Amino acid sequence: MLTIALPKGALLKDSIELCQKAGLDFSLFLSSSNRQLQIEDPTGVAKALLVRAQDVPVYVEYGQAHLGIAGYDVLKEKKANIAHLADLGFGYCRMSVAVPKDSPYRKSIDLPAHGIVASKFVNCAKEHFRALDLPVEIVPLYGSVELGPITGMSEAIVDLVSTGKTLRENGLIEIDVLFESSAYLVANPLLYRLNRDNIAGFVEQMTVNN
Amino acid sequence: MLTIALPKGALLKDSIELCQKAGLDFSLFLSSSNRQLQIEDPTGVAKALLVRAQDVPVYVEYGQAHLGIAGYDVLKEKKANIAHLADLGFGYCRMSVAVPKDSPYRKSIDLPAHGIVASKFVNCAKEHFRALDLPVEIVPLYGSVELGPITGMSEAIVDLVSTGKTLRENGLIEIDVLFESSAYLVANPLLYRLNRDNIAGFVEQMTVNN
């Protein structure tokens, strides 16, 4: 049976709609009373796993899900060995460098060598500053990254920006964009190549007229 | 001004009560309408940062907080360079290995070499299996670790267990305890040694008759 890993959070509603294009109904995950993490489509041809957005690439890489939906930001950060099949055209946001608006920094390269940058996306941040040849220290945080500059722990942050509201509320401004992100359909490369459980058929239905 | 990093989540209420023993009132963090991540005690002698439990050691290590309260599980996992001042006697739980109850494994060492263990506590899990000389693969997950064995991705999990309800609901049983955990008071070693902002005085009040 085809298994698809769906991300909790901001991408879930659009992901479930996408599955509906392929005739798969996982709308039970949207019900506030649902506690199940694994449900079968009523027609019995597929099942879905409801997992943390960062865990989607793991379930797909290890073959417990044939397909998955994950933000490009998560794919860049996790570097899982999975096939990126299609940009799904929703969940737009960007990975940015931000600093306090009254700081003197207006580009990443303005930051002091050996400065500190706080981020949930440690690998993305490291790559960005390595490419600039700027030896900053990347400090991993799990939440409320904006507290880094507010408390004076870090000169800057690397974080996902969607509307920019959180940055504005915390007196921060974007000074560089690392990349744009949106939701991607991903697959386990081997299962996809073998077209197990008609993966290709589902992918075609999900991505037609996308 | 003394700054203390308090953990969001299960330890917050007891942490705030502990601060009250030292005359510091941060109960605003318990109000559901509060959106501030940084508040000052009404008497003006200290402030508190409200951060993710895993981020407490970071703010303390980098000196943005003199003191912090964090679970021993987080301290073991993050290995931050901070001083462990006192076991606070609340937030009891244990770090355990669990497997599906119908599996043949009854001790960690029964697990197959090159088996897979899913965990949010990658360092703790690695250390445990390294000490046993058992070459398992540790797969990092961010949430719902119990899905690892349910989907067949992993033979076992290493996770925090408090009441054991989540394990039971998912057909898992504990087969080994790595360590017991509880909340600890931690300090930045240098600031503590210099007794900045009377850290020692606050620590004494917080830990007396503990």
Automatic annotation (TrEMBL), chains A, B:
<dbReference type="GO" id="GO:0000105">
    <property type="term" value="P:L-histidine biosynthetic process"/>
</dbReference>
<dbReference type="GO" id="GO:0003879">
    <property type="term" value="F:ATP phosphoribosyltransferase activity"/>
</dbReference>
<dbReference type="InterPro" id="IPR024893">
    <property type="entry name" value="ATP_PRibTrfase_HisG_short"/>
</dbReference>
<comment type="similarity">
    <text>Belongs to the ATP phosphoribosyltransferase family. Short subfamily.</text>
</comment>
<keyword id="KW-0808">Transferase</keyword>
<dbReference type="InterPro" id="IPR013820">
    <property type="entry name" value="ATP_PRibTrfase_cat"/>
</dbReference>
<keyword id="KW-0368">Histidine biosynthesis</keyword>
<keyword id="KW-0963">Cytoplasm</keyword>
<keyword id="KW-0328">Glycosyltransferase</keyword>
<keyword id="KW-0028">Amino-acid biosynthesis</keyword>
<protein>
    <recommendedName>
        <fullName>ATP phosphoribosyltransferase</fullName>
        <ecNumber>2.4.2.17</ecNumber>
    </recommendedName>
</protein>
<comment type="subunit">
    <text>Heteromultimer composed of HisG and HisZ subunits.</text>
</comment>
<keyword id="KW-0067">ATP-binding</keyword>
<comment type="pathway">
    <text>Amino-acid biosynthesis; L-histidine biosynthesis; L-histidine from 5-phospho-alpha-D-ribose 1-diphosphate: step 1/9.</text>
</comment>
<dbReference type="GO" id="GO:0005737">
    <property type="term" value="C:cytoplasm"/>
</dbReference>
<dbReference type="GO" id="GO:0005524">
    <property type="term" value="F:ATP binding"/>
</dbReference>
<keyword id="KW-0547">Nucleotide-binding</keyword>
<dbReference type="InterPro" id="IPR001348">
    <property type="entry name" value="ATP_PRibTrfase_HisG"/>
</dbReference>
<feature type="domain" description="ATP phosphoribosyltransferase catalytic">
    <location>
        <begin position="52"/>
        <end position="206"/>
    </location>
</feature>
<comment type="function">
    <text>Catalyzes the condensation of ATP and 5-phosphoribose 1-diphosphate to form N'-(5'-phosphoribosyl)-ATP (PR-ATP). Has a crucial role in the pathway because the rate of histidine biosynthesis seems to be controlled primarily by regulation of HisG enzymatic activity.</text>
</comment>
<dbReference type="InterPro" id="IPR018198">
    <property type="entry name" value="ATP_PRibTrfase_CS"/>
</dbReference>
<dbReference type="Pfam" id="PF01634">
    <property type="entry name" value="HisG"/>
</dbReference>
